Amino acid sequence: MKQSHCDLGNYNGKEKDSFIPALSHGATIQVITMESGLDDKVIIVEGTSDKRKVLSVLKEDIEVICTNGTISLSRLDELVDELYNKDVYILVDADESGEKLRKQFKRELPEASHLYIDKMYREVATAPAYHIATVLLSANIDVNMEFVEQRMS
Ligand code: MG
After folding, report:
1. Cα of 97 to ligand 1 centre, how many Å?
2. What pLDDT, on a 0 to 100 scale, did the predictor assign at position 70?
3. With 80 as the cut, is the pLDDT of residue 32 above it?
4. Binning pLDDT at 50, 70 and 90, where does residue 86 land?
5. How far is the CA of 28 from the centre of ligand 1 (A)?
6. From the CA of 149, how far away is ligand 1's center (Å)?
7. Rounded distance from Cα 128 to ligand 1 centre (Å)
8. Rounded to whole angstroms, how far apart are CA atoms 95 and 123?
9. What separation in Å is there between the alpha carbon of 74 and the centre of ligand 1?
C-alpha cells in the first residue's frame, strides 16, 4: 500500500470549492492506492514434490499450483482464466520439459513472472531449500529467513 497526500491548499478557492466543497482550505486528504493492482500471489510449479519444496520455505500464505508437466491448451486456457488478476510466478525445472512449460506460459500468460533456479540444480524438488528460498526472496516473496541463512552457516 502506498499513501500519498493531496494538499488542497495548492488549489485556488474556486477550484477547491468545485471539486470538494465540504473540505476547508488547507485540508489534507489521503489517497490510498494499491501498489500493483493485483490480488493474490500464485506460484506455478510442475509436480507435487516441487510444491512441497516451495511450501516448506514459504512464509506467506501463497497458493502453489502443480501443472503435472506440460499441459494441454484447453487445460492451460482454464488455468489462465483461474489466474485472472493474480500475481503469477512460474518456477519450473531447469530442463527441457520445464522450458517447454515456460514457453506455454509466456505465450498464454505473458504477464506472469518467471523465476529460475540455478542450472546446476536442475530440479526444483531436489535443489537445496536455501536456494529455493533465495530465488523466491529475489521476487519479493516472503520466505522463512532461516533457509536463506543456512547458506551462510
Ligand atoms: Mg523436470
Report:
1. 6
2. 81
3. no
4. very high
5. 55
6. 27
7. 15
8. 8
9. 22
Work out the pLDDT band at 13, boundaries 50, 70, 90: very low
Residue-range domain boundaries for the chain? 2-33, 41-150
Q: For the chain, give the percent of residues with pLDDT over 70.
A: 73
Residue 53: pLDDT over 70:
yes
User: What is the topology classification, in CATH, of domain 41-150?
Assistant: Dna Topoisomerase Vi A Subunit; Chain: A, domain 2 (3.40.1360)
60 close to 40: Cβ distance less than 8 angstroms? no
Task: Say how far residue 11 (Cα) sits from the centre of its chain.
Answer: 39
The CA distance from 135 to 114, in Å, is: 11
Tell me the whole-structure pTM to 2 decimals: 0.73
Q: What is the rounded CA–CA span in Å between residue 89 and residue 87?
A: 7
C-alpha–C-alpha distance, residues 23 and 20, integer Å: 6
DSSP class of residue 42 equals: E
- Grouping H, G, I as helix, E, B as strand and the rest as coil, residue 131 is helix
pLDDT at 20: 47
Q: How far is the CA of 51 from the centre of ligand 1 (A)?
A: 13
22 or 109, greater pLDDT: 109
Q: What is Dmax (Cα atoms) for the chain?
A: 66
